[in-house]
Amino acid sequence: MEKATLEKFKNLFLEILSEEELSAGKLFPVSLEGDEVDIVSVEKQNQMDFRLKARNTIFMKKVKKSLQKIEDGTFGECEECGTEISNNRLIARPTADLCIQCKEAEEKEENQLIHRNKKSIKNGKVLPIEQLERGFKADETGTSNFHVRHMDYQDIVG
Ligand SMILES: [Zn+2]
Asked: What is the distance in A from the centroid of ligand 1 to the CA of 30?
């Protein structure tokens, strides 16, 4: 990756982190989708706050990890196969760990696991712990587009 491009990503990540520090303790929605907007009680609001906070923490971890990769000189490399992640993909999702091929392969695998989990629940079987963890991971990575999230974030902080 070109040095100038790398610099841009680095600045973006640093900017996100400094904004996060400025708003430390303050809560802001990362994304609102569908029925999450329909708040009917304080209890429900608290539940949502917790979920958003958790989601945001995961995102901040990814940002820090990406910065570390820039330092290590591994930013933009697929963690799975080592090929360069396309610029388009990185622009859409700067914290991407996998190239599109590996990501698709992983999602396919996760969908199969979720499908199998559903079947197991139906049959009343207890799930192996690693399958539950994989299910959680699928939820973690299934977050919405970076730009939308970043814009929401700026709208609220700024
Ligand atoms: Zn790959």
From this structure: 28
